[in-house]
Write a structure and sequence with these properties.
Rossmann fold; alpha/beta; 6 helices; globular; 6-stranded mixed sheet; 21% strand
Amino acid sequence: MKVIAFVGSPRRNGNCANLVSAILEGVEGSGAEIKIHFLGAKNIKGCTGCYHCEKANECIITDDDMQEIYADMESSDAYVFASPVYFDHVTAQFKLFVDRIFPYYHAKPFKGRKAVFALTYEEDNDEIYGEVVDWFTGMIDACHGIKVVDSLKVHGVVKQPVKDNPALLSRAEDIGRALVQP
């Protein structure tokens, strides 16, 4: 089994990345191959809206890091998607990635694969940003056939950083273990 993580935070050691690390610690016990893409460190060009991909099932933009990401998505069995909230939604880096996986929309080669989605944010209110989780989980299922089997929406990460929250880290590991179960 191969699990690929896509981290939308520009911070490799931030709350979002620490949460993904905990999820992947849960995955590790299964012996799965793991790879992480830190989207903020990637050269990902924006979608041009040309719809070439709708006809050809491939993006016309070929001179950026999406080629590596496409190959990893195609060869993976499960996914971990994660982003912090910046200005009330996923980061620009994460949204670039989401826009650029549109070439798979019609063919749906990932149908039936599983994923988890993690969202971190500063506000100390657990009742907000559910719509961001709903947007992503609905989109990735409807557009790509990937079923989000669990999600984590973590609030107040400035007051209590992810790395200092043992209960959360334990839950994240459990979610990672469950992701790789048949």
